[in-house]
Each structure stands twice: as C-alpha cells, then as structure tokens.
Design a protein that fits this description.
The chain is of the alpha/beta class. It contains ten helices and twelve strands. Helix content is about 45%, strand content about 20%. Helix 2 links the parallel strand 1 and strand 2.
Length: about 325
Amino acid sequence: MKGKVWRIFIIFSAMLLIAGCAAKKMLDLKMKKIVVVLSGSRDDMSWNMSNIEGIRACNESKKVNIEYIEHVVENDYEKTFSEYAMSGYDIIIGAGSQFNDAIEAIAPKYKATLFCIINGTVTNVDNVVSVRVKEYEVAYIASIIAGRETKNGVFATIGGYPNVPMKKMLDVYEANAVRLAKERGIDTAHSMRAYANSWDDVKLGYDITEQMLEDGADTVLVYANKVCIGCINALKGKNAHMIGLATDQSRINSGVVIASVIFDFEKLYTWVLDEYAAGRLPGKRQYAIGMNQDMFCLSYTDQISEDTVDAVNAALRDLRSGKIRLNEE
C-alpha cells in the first residue's frame, strides 16, 4: 500500500511539473503583430533615427517583424493607435512621451492589445506599460566629456520641451559639467539653457545656437530631435563644439560634434519583447532601462583626449557598481 501511495505521489508531482512548464511557455513572437509609432522620421539624426535603427536590429537578431510608421502628426495620434488596435495588433508602441495622452485615452477601448509608451508616464491603465530611458545617465556621461573638453566653461543646452524628464536630464548635465570645469580652474564656468518647444524646427535650432554663441558658449548639447541639425549648422566654422546625443551625430559633421552618447534601442525593444513573451510585462507600471541593460554606448572623434576617455570609462564603472548614485526623483 505504501508503495502505491508513493507511485501516486510521484505521478502527481510530475503532472504538476509538466503543467508548470506549460504555463511558463514563451509566446511565439513571430506570430505577433507589433508596430512602433513615431512622430518624427529617420532624417532627424536623433531620437527617431535611433529608434528605427534599433527596430531594424531587433528584427534581425530576433527574427521578428516589428513594423514602424514615421512622422505621425499630433492630430492623428488617437486615430493611428485606434486603427492599429482595430486591425488586431498585439503590441502597439508609442516612441515618446508625446503619446501619453493619446494612448491613455485609446487603450481602455482595446483590452486585447498591449500599449507601450517609451518615456511614458501612464501607470493607471491595465493594458499600458511605460518604459523610461534613464536619460539622466546619458546626461552624466556627456557632462564628463563637456566638463573636461571645454576651453572657457560656458555650456549651452537646448531641450525640446520643458517636461520633467527633460529638465532633470539637463539639470544633471549642467551641474556636473560646470563642477568639472571649475575643478579645472575655470572659476567663471556656467550654463545657459533654452527650449525649442519643437522637435523639428531646424531654423529655430540655428537661431538659438547663434545667440548662445554670441553669449560666449563653447560647448553645446542638444536634445530636441531634428532641431539638432540647425544647431550643428550654426556651429560650423565657430570656435565651439557639440556633444551628440541619441545617434552618432559626428556623422553629420565630425569637426563640430566631437563625441556622442548613443542610445542602443535594439536593447530596449529586445527587452520589451522578451518580457512580454515571458509574461513578465503587466500593465499599470513604469519600467526603467539604462546603463545596466547596456542601453548606451559612446563614439569619440580624434578631438577627444585619452584622459577624457579614461575619465568616462571610470565613471561608467562607478555608475554600474553603485559607487556613483544619481538621484532618480
């Protein structure tokens, strides 16, 4: 009788194990319809280009088919999300905080679809997840280059819109760049800031940068998508330089852009798909992706000193180990 009980127990345990394995089976992403909605286009040489390059790399590495649509204007946000949801898309991703309101309004109508907002803040809808890029980490890395390479300690920053993450990012950059310049003996080091209130006004970027150059800036950082192209044009032939963000912007002008901190969006899209496939991406939450997920990499021109490269590498090690802690609030 005891032997029979043991056999029943073993069989029952095996059945539970099999059931558990079946429950944890990964979803087949090749069968899922996925699209990324972008408000800009690849030619911005910034946020949108970086996203598109990441999508293509993710498609190649994971053998999936993430689609994307470029240059969706604000008046069409809700219509675009609704059309993809009605067409049976499983995952719809809005690439930017500008999609917060549209997705928050549309998502409750399409419960079968997972909506994801990159740099979003929506956390009150069951089928919406927000994935925040730790841009303040990028700002800190860029500030080391700026603070060590500036000649006069006058830093100019241009942001797209004055939202909370943008302000935090530029605060981190400016504070550390000024601190490093002062440590080098530039007692008058200071920063100036402007917001374009646009992601694509190239002429405005040119005009703002010209004014900042007249005010003495020799190091410029721009985080405003296509606006950066106007800024780079304004810097041509001037005794000043720029730190690139999102893509390797030295590809536009390596004489102006002396280094870039690049976003590797393949890592972000791969993370989102892997978490979704494993059933680990519940809604009503905000997730954060950054250096510890290898989200960022660097590109230097020969204008950057070896000492600066060494300082950046040391900071990267300290950030990863927790020796340097940036306030996330």
